[in-house]
Each structure stands twice: as C-alpha cells, then as structure tokens.
Design goal:
This protein is mainly α. The protein is about 75% helix and about 0% strand. The longest helix has about 30 residues. The protein is globular.
Length: about 170
C-alpha cells in the first residue's frame, strides 16, 4: 500500500502548490478503491497534514462512494454483464467480492463493520459495501455499518500513521 500511496502522492504533486492542494490530494486518494481512507491517512502523514483534519477529509472521501455502491452497483453489474467484452471483468469482480462474503454474511452488521474497519489487505468500504449489496443486506444497516467501519479504520490508521510511523519518520 505504501508504494501505491507514494505513487499517487507523486501523481498529485502538481496540485500541492495550490491552496488546499495537500487536502485535495488526500481526499482523492481516499475516494479510490484499494487505497481508501487508509491510503489517504498514510498520504496525509507523509504530507504533514494535521491528523484531525486528515481524518475528517479522508473520512468524507472514503464514505462518498458507499451509497452509490450500495444502491447502484448490482443493477450496474447486471447491465454491464450483457456486454460480452465486459462480462468477464464484472464476473471476476463479483467472484472476488463473494469469496469474502462469509466474513460478513453470518453476522451482517457487525461482520460488515469489522470487515470495513480492520485495515487488512482486501478489506475496506468498497469491498464491504459491494459484498453487502450482493448479499442483499439491508441498505440502511449496511450504510451505518460501513460508516462506523470507516471511523474505526480511521482511528486505527491515525495511530499507525501518525503515532508509530510518525515516530519512525521524525
């Protein structure tokens, strides 16, 4: 993840010179699948953004896609699967998400909250809400669990990025 974060921090280096450039960088990183809030907070630590401000910006960046995934991804996937060239990609995405569904399916709300909140590879709001949508979890419960999971991930990442990483870097 660190390599990806460094890549995107470098990619957005041009906007760092404009007002709120660092903040825009971490917001965009937090919106991206795979990196999400975890990558945004790591980038914020590298860019010396205030940790509280970083948490707020990364939180909003990470929760922005959640409602769209919960309410629109399944119908979108159904439509995209009708195109023969795109169908294998969609099927691969669905299979990857469904391979992790047992972590959420049995204890839905708490499973989703901890799946989103514990920063491990392959977990996070994007994958968690995709799984919740695919198993037809109650959308409101999934939304609340995902938001709380993002908060949990944010707290963990603040401790890791600013606490432990901060001690190493400074």
């Amino acid at each position: 993840m660190e390599s990806l974060v460094e890549f995107f921090v470098g990619l957005f280096s041009g906007i760092r010179s404009v007002p709120f450039g660092k903040e825009m960088t971490i917001f965009f990183i937090s919106c991206l699948p795979i990196l999400e809030l975890r990558g945004g907070i790591l980038a914020a630590a590298l860019l010396n953004v205030n940790p509280i401000l970083a948490f707020i910006i990364c939180f909003f960046g990470n929760i922005l896609p959640i409602p769209f995934i919960l309410w629109f991804i399944t119908p979108l996937f159904r439509r995209l699967k009708k195109c023969k060239k795109i169908e294998p990609i969609i099927t691969k995405l669905e299979n990857k998400a469904l391979s992790k569904k047992e972590k959420i399916e049995n204890i839905q709300f708490w499973g989703l909250l901890f799946f989103v909140g514990i920063p491990l590879p392959g977990t996070g709001a994007w994958t968690g809400t995709l799984i919740a949508s695919m198993i037809d979890m109650d959308k409101k419960k999934a939304l609340i669990a995902s938001v709380l999971g993002v908060i949990l991930a944010g707290v963990i990442m603040l401790v890791m990025s600013y606490g432990i990483l901060g001690l190493i870097l400074h």
